[in-house]
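User: Structure please.
Assistant: Input sequence and predicted structure:
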Amino acid sequence: MSDHNELVRLIKPRALPAGVLEIEATADERAALSQRFGVTAISALTATAAFGEKDGAVLVDGTLRATIEQPCAVTRDPLAYELEEAFSLRFVPPRDRGDHADDEEFELTAEDLDEIEYEGDAFDLGEAIAQELGLAIDPYREGPGADAARDEVGIESDEERKASGPLAEALSALKKD
């Protein structure tokens, strides 16, 4: 996590919120996050989170919703779209990972992949939501005019490139036989 988090929502594992927690980012938080993620604006950001516990870990299942504004990857025209992502996280206190050498490889389980260690008496759910948002933003998002712009300058789309070339010709010859 960064030294300065834009969306801070501290949660104490000893006093987990009951029911579903609703989170809504302020205008200043959204502006800071849009700068962090290199998009024009984040005009809305909300999340819901439900808490549970298992084996000393705090389990958080939720959904984030955002309205993202960014330039089209092809035309650079403004593009706004809605984003909705489900997330499942495990917050765990630091633990000894065993006596592994720095260059030694070891297996991670599926549960390890979305596990976030925290120190002290609270973890920052807001920063975890911000990171989930960052992963969900498509930096190469295309608007409705992208195909026309490609056609105008003679750039083939991925589909057109796949439909031509040596591999496509070989496959076409096999289908004919």
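The first strand starts at residue 10 and ends at 11.
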